[in-house]
TrEMBL record:
Its EC number is 3.2.1.23. Keywords: Glycosidase, Hydrolase, Metal-binding, Zinc. One of its GO terms (biological process) is galactose metabolic process. Residues 601-658 form the Beta-galactosidase C-terminal domain. This is Beta-galactosidase. The active site is at E109, E269. Residues 392-483, 515-591 form the Beta-galactosidase trimerisation domain. Residues 1-347 form the Glycoside hydrolase family 42 N-terminal domain. GO terms for molecular function: beta-galactosidase activity; metal ion binding. It catalyses: Hydrolysis of terminal non-reducing beta-D-galactose residues in beta-D-galactosides.
């Protein structure tokens, strides 16, 4: 409550009015409803932006953002930080004795609208950040490769912000540090508020609701300051952008990525209906889908959930972002579904809380530096996450427990772990992979992994670096790009050569240079990138290049390590390669579906602990379906009805089966 209400709480500088929220909190409290307050710093009042226009964000073209929207102020600005602390302190002091205020959300979806800023305040703070990090300008010049294109500096106050195409590209090290600074600045802005809230009343819980994941380092101060993390979930909105085929699949992907950052979480905003802003709109959940989408959030790790929102607004830029009840204050099927879901989760709370989401297949994720390293030098290749989606979706479609996890975390529950082209690599992670393999795990390491250091420099050793080469028994002798699968060239556009336009239906040079490979008896086309490998004598070749000059050379390898193996993959995933690899590697690793013979349109996941296993089965189609091969147990959503192998689900129907044994 109050996340966008700064102008109401402080209508003019130093004058506070809490009456509206005091009355609302009291009414809710009388009906047994506690309140989570929110710092209103995503929308500062006009009197503040008018008095201090220097706090506005500035885009890469030098244009200041305008009042009249949200997140238009620069979280790096010392002036804005001071005013944000003032309103946070005033609210905290006012509500410290209110028994119905139980916790706080910081700001709202930090960095979702625009994480970057190129303001004077950002520049000054960036320079200070760099001075604290490097201490000596010579060290910064070395880290950024200042001898290339005369980009060295004589002092920190000479450093500029990395404008894209100004007129060409900045150093990858420069860009990497800029985004590290944005993450630092975001965490510092939130820390200001958390510090005040905890000092005023330590018993309050504090969290943040993330709408996007840009320029936030979850393994740093940002998450350490919080009691737990919240993720806002809008499945039909994401599907408009990611186009993975259906919003259930997109929701599962988004949730699994988020859980990789923080473990279990809450959902402060769960989509409940049609959503829109003036420039777009989403599909509308059909009857039954609101409940199913909410259950999917729980199935993928949510320990709490709130719907967005109670009723839609009648004015503003989200007038058609629908809620539990409609504009006419009438509750229809969405209200009934939300009530049913709430009753079900209240009843099952003792069984669900304390469980974690099962993962048999883990994908390396939630590493800030590797996310940013790709963005600094993408060269048309898929990001690590884009590549990982192919494996995640393969597992999702087959009911295999899959998720994202950082290599620093506990890998012991996994059976297989995939590293999707992390160019920045730490030797201690290699030790973790080796220990995992020694214990019987299967590790897959993607091409280009370990090829840059923390300054974004290409390493001086033969790829993939000393530690990974020792683990895999592989060295990269040569590499190059390939066309994306089905593309007419890397960027799938008409190419120009000597002023001549090559028509789209004429094979481009890149297509004439397609690389093919054989894995087992199957031959297929590689996509995006290739590596030519040399191997140690104890390394098994599991795939070879099958055409052009590399014919017969290793493309993928396996090396036995203890009870397990380490696989090296000298290319990027394609759907065909993903299927071939999983056919070869999953069964020996003990990876199998949670439910055998899963029909199309059904999602299965499992939450578990040492005491219980809860199998979530969801039909995300509008037609009834029969699910076979379900392990014996009792359906907790159907009066604990016994399940013995078959489960009947109506359209958008769900079951939570507590398994026997």
């Amino acid at each position: 409550m109050a996340e966008f209400a700064w102008h109401i709480l402080e209508p003019k500088l130093g004058t506070y009015d809490f009456d509206l929220f005091d009355r609302a909190i009291a009414i809710l409290g009388r009906h047994g409803i506690d309140t989570i307050m929110c710092t209103p710093t995503a929308t500062p009042p006009r009197w503040l932006t008018a008095a201090h226009p220097e706090i506005l964000r500035v885009d890469g073209k030098g244009r200041p953002m305008s009042h009249g929207s949200r997140q238009h102020c620069d979280t790096a600005s010392p002036v804005f930080r001071e005013y944000s602390k003032r309103i946070t302190r005033a609210m905290a002091e006012h509500y410290r004795g209110n028994p119905f205020v139980v916790g706080w959300q910081t700001d709202n979806e930090l960095n979702t609208s625009m994480p970057e800023s190129f303001s004077k305040a950002t520049l000054t703070e960036f320079q200070t950040f760099l001075a604290d990090k490097y201490r000596e300008i010579a060290k910064l010049n070395a880290a950024w490769g200042g001898d290339f294109w005369a980009t060295a500096y004589d002092s920190f106050d000479q450093v500029v912000l990395p404008i894209e195409f100004g007129p060409t590209f900045p150093s990858p090290g420069h860009l990497q540090d800029y985004h590290r600074f944005l993450a630092f600045s975001t965490a510092r802005f939130q820390h200001d508020q958390v510090e005040i809230l905890r000092a005023v009343k330590p018993s309050w819980f504090v969290f943040h609701n993330l709408g996007g994941l840009r320029d936030i380092d979850f393994r740093g101060q940002f998450s350490k300051d919080l009691d737990f993390v919240g993720y806002d979930i809008y499945p039909m909105l994401y599907d408009e952008f990611q186009r993975l085929g259906n919003h259930a699949k997109v929701q599962a992907l988004h949730l699994d990525i988020c859980r990789g950052f923080s473990g279990n979480y809450i959902v402060p905003e769960q989509q409940s209906g049609f959503g829109s802003q003036p420039g777009f709109c989403t599909l509308t959940p059909e009857p039954g889908e609101l409940r199913r989408m909410a259950l999917s959030s729980v199935a993928h790790g949510a320990d709490g959930l709130m719907f967005f929102r109670w009723r839609p607004a009648h004015f503003g830029a989200e007038i058609y972002w629908m809620g539990i009840i409609d504009h006419d204050d009438i509750g229809r099927h969405r209200y009934e579904e939300a009530k049913r879901f709430a009753n079900e989760m209240t009843a099952l709370q003792p069984k669900i809380l304390g469980t974690f989401v099962r993962m048999d297949v883990g994908i390396a994720g939630s590493d800030f530096d590797n996310q940013e390293a790709h963005k600094t030098y993408p060269i048309g290749l898929p990001s690590p996450q884009d590549d990982a989606i192919l494996l995640h979706q393969h597992c999702y479609d087959r009911g295999i427990a899959c998720g994202f996890i950082h290599p620093e975390d506990d890998l012991s529950r996994l059976k297989l772990f995939y590293v999707p082209h992390w160019v920045m690599w730490k030797d201690e992670w290699t030790d973790k992979l080796e220990a995992f393999a020694v214990s019987g795990g299967t590790v897959i390491i993607g091409a280009r992994t370990g090829t840059r250091n923390e300054d974004n420099h290409v390493i001086r050793e033969t790829a993939p670096g000393t530690a990974l080469s020792k683990l895999t028994g592989v060295r990269v002798e040569d590499f190059g790009r390939l066309a994306a699968p089905g593309a007419n060239g890397l960027f799938d556009v008409m190419e120009r050569s000597g002023g001549l336009v090559i028509p789209p239906n004429k094979p481009a040079e890149s297509n004439r240079r397609q690389r093919r490979f054989k894995i087992g008896n199957r031959e297929m086309t590689a996509g995006h990138f290739y590596e030519n490998l040399t191997i140690d004598p104890d390394v098994e070749v599991i795939a070879i290049w099958s055409n052009r000059y590399a014919e017969g050379q290793p493309m993928a390898t396996s090396r036995k390590i203890g009870k397990g193996q380490v696989v090296y993959l000298g290319t990027y995933l394609t759907p065909e390669l993903t299927e071939a690899l999983t056919e070869r590697l999953f069964a020996p690793a003990g990876v199998e579906p949670l439910v055998g013979g899963l029909p199309e349109g059904v999602e299965v996941t499992m939450r578990m602990n040492d005491e219980r296993r809860l199998l979530f089965v969801q039909n995300y189609m509008d037609q009834a379906v029969t699910v076979g091969g379900v392990p014996a147990g009792r359906d907790l959503l159907d009066g604990e009805k016994k399940v013995t192998g078959r489960l009947e689900l109506q359209g958008y129907g769900c079951a939570i089966v507590e398994l026997e044994g």
